[in-house]
Amino acid sequence: MNQNYNKIPLAIVTGAASGLGFELALLLARDGYELILIDVNSEKLQQAKEKIEARYATQVQLLHKDLSKPKVAESIVQSIEDRAIDVLVNNAGFGIYGSFHETDWERQAAMLHLHVITTTHLTKLILKKMVARGKGKILNMSSLAAFQPGPLMSLYYASKAYILSFSEAIANELKGTGVTVTCLCPGQTKTCFQEVVSNGCSASDNKIKFNIACPKQVAAYGYEAMKKGKIVAIPGNINKLLSKLPRLVPRRTATAVIRRIQEKNRAV
Ligand SMILES: NC(=O)c1ccc[n+]([C@@H]2O[C@H](COP(=O)([O-])OP(=O)(O)OC[C@H]3O[C@@H](n4cnc5c(N)ncnc54)[C@H](OP(=O)(O)O)[C@@H]3O)[C@@H](O)[C@H]2O)c1
């Protein structure tokens, strides 16, 4: 057995094959963490491992999992056995564009399972051991979408609001335990996310090219916030302002504005 088995910090990152998850994995590798990277896309996951190992001398273990499936959190915890987790990054996610009644239920249910059930269950299973050890950090990926309802992406916005509310509540419960929870709420970021959102509907790539962040910068911002134990992290001054707008105007107005933005952003 590796002599350093319990000495090298260990991090789990979900959705680590691309975008923000990959950038967060790189930052953890830079800081000396061993990694367990999880993604549904095994080919991209293998490429991510090779890129990380080419830059940093760290151990990278891959778990090929569809996190939208039942009991997947339990199977992850079984795979890692009794290894102590220092950092958990619940990042995997995707969006679905279209009217709620017209979009595909199988895909909607998968997204809800991924964002709500798997994020919650994996957090619960790993958090218990972190609290028992008196240390650990959790980074949950929400979105600017969390701050108001989102017509035409209703379940995405609602599920990201769940992640924000859940994270803030347990962060409060965990005060004094040595474990922190940070919720990262990015605005539009240049990753594969936008292509996936448009998948299966007539909309094409996003049309609003204003205020699109670079994934490296968003990940670095979230990572620093997690290290400091900040509870809510919103990268970018414009996004900080946008997150407050729903409190300054009637909720109905904020909802109508989001509908206009979504229609404009994904118009064919
Ligand atoms: N990009 C943005 O504008 C933006 C803004 C706010 C929040 N976010 C959030 O940031 C997180 C990361 O997204 P990203 O922008 O980095 O997009 P991304 O490049 O598409 O990365 C998401 C990763 O998660 C994986 N994934 C999707 N469904 C999965 C499942 N069921 N099981 C396991 N892995 C799965 C994807 O695999 P595949 O490639 O095979 O789908 C992909 O590798 C998401 O939670 C997203 O909601 C993104």
UniProtKB/TrEMBL annotation:
Keywords from the UniProt entry: Oxidoreductase
Pfam family, one: adh_short
Source organism superkingdom: Bacteria
Matches recorded under InterPro entries: NAD(P)-bd_dom_sf (IPR036291), SDR_fam (IPR002347), VLCFA-Steroid_DH (IPR051019)
Gene3D superfamilies assigned to the protein according to its UniProt record, in alphabetical order: NAD(P)-binding Rossmann-like Domain (3.40.50.720)
Similarity annotation: Belongs to the short-chain dehydrogenases/reductases (SDR) family.
Protein's recorded name: Short-chain dehydrogenase
Native source organism of the sequence: Aequorivita vladivostokensis
